[in-house]
Amino acid sequence: MSDVAVTWAKAQTCMSVLKGRKGADGVVGPDKVRADSNAKAVLVAMASYADAEGRAWVLVDVLAMEIDKQPRMVERGRQALVDAGLLIKTTETHLYAGRKIPIYRLPLELGHASTVRRRIAEREAQLAKASGSMGVTGDTHGGERPPSPVTPDPRHRCRPTGVTGDTLIGKGITQDQTQGVRACASNPDQVRSEAFEQACDAWAGKAPERVSPPLSWQAWVAALERAALSEAVLLAAVLAAVARDPDFGRGKAMNLDRWLTQDRFRGWLTAAGSTAGPVTPGRWDGPPEVRTAVVDAIGEAGAVSYLDTASWVEADRAVRCRTSIGAERLRSAAGRALSTLNVTLQGPAAQPSQHRNER
After folding, report:
1. Highest averaged pLDDT of the listed ranges 36-50, 140-154, 166-180
2. What gap in Å lies between CA 110 and CA 85, rounded to an integer?
3. In what order do the strands lie in the sheet with 311-313?
4. Closest by alpha carbon to 279, among 293, 271, 288, 268?
5. Contact (Cβ atoms closer than 8 angstroms) between residue 169 and residue 39
6. Residues of the chain with pLDDT > 70: what percent?
7. Nearest to 284 by CA among 294, 276, 274, 297
8. What is the C-alpha separation between 111 and 273, in angstroms, rounded?
9. How many CB atoms lie under 10 A from the CB of residue 49?
10. Which of 219, 268, 297, 313 could be disulfide-bonded to 260 (CB atoms 3.0-4.6 Å)?
11. Looking at the DSSP assignment, which residues form a beta bridge with residue 18?
């Protein structure tokens, strides 16, 4: 079972089109679009059987039992997903009890990776639409709009299923995305580098359910561009985290794609960016009890990513984070613990990020 695949499936929206009915006057009414809960249930159920690559096989009778549907409804929903490109039927089969069960693949590299990312993308789309309706150009990001989470890596040469991730399902619907999805799915590994494959192998060695190569590859490429790193340096950070992060031993390892997207690798980089020898994470220069409180709240990996990269302001008894995201992560996850120590949080602009004492 892949947690990544289930998270991805829950974030997708399946829409079906009901053909307009002919009225008493002989005029056919307009088509209606509505959410297809049957197809969505089939997608989520199949995702629970998928491996890290999104490949899954399962009996129709088993799916019908799990989602409380008739087998014919399961087959109908599965076919609708195939037509929409949310489920790809491979040429492979799995032999079970003398029967050949078809193997499907979920295109994890397309659409929204999670419900959180989908909500962010939809909110940005709403803000962009509102700004456009008021004649406002540009935005608050230095005049350049940040890429939406649904924007795929151009190397995949595929497009997601629309700005909001909605997929229309039904007969007579032409979907330009479907051909691109299938073309990409025919060889999803064609552009992955050797360093990336080594990183996935290392991560999967301790947490196999936390690695999805399609999603991790997109996060890997984005991290390289965002942090201006070489693949050798990023690989060294991954290997160091796998070898030394105690969260792996506690069964609390993060998904590799999330680890990359949230810049957790920064705490495992060497100061010079060299890959020779073990990678040493940043060192916290403040009171040790502060770090202990953060580790208890969000684990060693969180402390390495957000606290060890911050600085200590003794005059204010404050943690000055390197980024505003780091300040928000610490505030939401360790705010109560820091409050008991009379410690405040500051963003990169040295503006306090106050948090309530929730004793």
Report:
1. 36-50
2. 10
3. 311-313, 318-320, 344-346, 352-353
4. 268
5. yes
6. 75
7. 294
8. 33
9. 19
10. 219
11. 32
Report whether 86 contacts 161 (CB < 8 A): yes
Comparing 134-143, 202-211, 292-301, which segment has the lowest mean pLDDT? 134-143
In this structure, what token pair is assigned to residue 142? 């230095």
- The residues, ordered by sequence, that sit 6+ positions from 222 with a Cβ below 8 Å of its Cβ are 153, 260, 261
Instruction: Tell me the two tokens of residue 137.
Output: 């150009």
How many whole angstroms from its chain centre is CA 325?
A: 17
Task: Report the alpha-carbon distance of residue 208 to residue 104 in Å, rounded.
Answer: 20
Nearest CA to 319 out of 300, 301, 299, 339 is that of 339
The DSSP code sequence of 6-38 is HHHHHH-EEEEEEPPPB-TTSPBPPPEEEE-HH
Q: Is 8's pLDDT higher than 50? A: yes
- At 339, list the tokens: 């409050």
Q: How far apart are CA 263 and CA 36, in angstroms?
A: 36
| d(C-alpha 302, C-alpha 300), whole Å | 5
Distance CA(71)–CA(221), nearest Å, equals 41
* Burial (CB count within 10 angstroms: exposed 0-12, middle 13-18, buried 19+), residue 175: middle
Give CA–CA dist 329/326, Å, rounded: 5
Phi, psi (rounded to 5 degrees) for 120: -65, -45
222-250 pLDDT per residue, tens: 888 888 888 888 888 888 888 877 777 77
Give 134: exposed, middle or buried? Use CB within 10 Å, 0-12, 13-18, 19+.
exposed
Q: Is 214 exposed, middle or buried (0-12, 13-18, 19+ CB in 10 A)?
A: buried
The CA-CA-CA angle for residues 109, 113, 115, to 5°, reads 155
Give the amino acid at 155.
R
This prediction's pTM: 0.45
Residue 70: pLDDT band by 50, 70, 90 thresholds?
very high
